[in-house]
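ugh ok so i messed up the first submission bc i forgot one of the chains. this is the corrected input, ALL of the components this time, i swear. 435 residues overall. if the numbers dont match what u have on ur side tell me asap before i send this to the collaborators (the ones from the other lab, u know who)
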Amino acid sequence: MNKPLLGALVGGILGVFDGLTALVSAPETAPQIVGIIIGSTIKGLIVGVLVGWYASRVHSLAKGMIVGLIVAAFFAFLIAAMPSPDGTHYYWEIILPGSIVGLIVGYATQKFGTARARAV
Amino acid sequence: MTTWLSNTVVDHLRVVATWPELPGDRYVIERPIGRGGMGTVYVARDTLLERDVAIKVSNAPVAGSGLDERLRQEAQVLARLEHPGIVPVHDAGQLADGRMFYVMKLVHGETLSAHAKRLSGEASVIGVFERVTETIAFAHEAGVIHRDLKPSNVMVGRFGEVLVLDWGVAKASEEAAASATRVGTPGFMPPEQARGEATSTSDVFALGALLFWMLTDATPPPARDDALRALNAAARPPRRLAAIVLKCLASEPSDRYSNAAALAADLARYRAGQPVAAHRETTLERIGLWFIKYRTFILLVAAYLVMRAMFAFLR
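and heres the new structure output, hopefully the right one now
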């Protein structure tokens, strides 16, 4: 499996899981859970493709994980910047776990998946 | 007019007079760098290609003796084995007096006997040892058995390259099995080789003895329990690594790895944190290995779950 596809798969699965955890960390968001899961999954897919694309070009575990962290934190920030219907922002609750998801995607795409061979 | 030469010059001329007379003027001998039972190695200048080379010249007292034949065989074996871990042969021929010589690449470095002191940590020991094992695996694949592996026959170059030297007693597998000649070095030689029977598993024993020596700075005692005790006392290697060494050192050839490639594969598994053929892991050990292998991933998932739990509790 190529790295961008692997990134999308890992990011998507973790995105679904990350969205579902909102039921535990912020139960009052239950009425919006479907939207949260869809948003979180799309975020995971985009982060996964970007981090996987980077991993197919740069082979460094540390750099891959840092890029995963930054990209995921950025997208998590975009989502956290959107207030809930009661006007509350969940910056820490979204950005911190979302960043760790980025680290996991960075780790997975560096360790596994096949990089496209370069023409010599 | 009489010219007096100083003692130093006379001594030098006396030494130079003992150096072999090479045919033609392509190679100019500069100095001897080593002498073994079979031949003497000199540094020489290749005037055609303008580079330094090493020339091994037979120590045979007269041309055509057994030593000449062995040197010829060594040159042929080396020429057959083209591998980064084996010194390449450039040329071969006969001296004016009929003795054999061959020309090879000059390697700048030191033998493992001297280099081992500078190896710090298990990873660097395994790194060098794996290169030796891969070279011997290549030779076994080509049907050649070294028969005299020991620290002084391994060279570590200036840039970390590892070369296996002295293929003077190496034989094709079938010839070695049929030969009743006793060759090798005590401490690095398995019991069957002492009886004149050598196969690829004999090299595996020597490799085990080499790794034992690299870990403990001593040759292995004959009994398995003594070897394990000495290994644990000197190096305290992980159980899996000790099992690999002991499997190589088994007194029965059938209990060893069948060849160097099988040993190299087990070493690679050891380095990758996977179960090795030499040691049957307990369930607990397998779980431990899995945790070590995926520790970063496990830590990240744990960090994620802790963070989520923390946010849930803080509300």
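quick check: The first strand of chain B starts at residue 27 and ends at 35. that seems consistent at least. The two ends of chain B are 111 Å apart (CA to CA).
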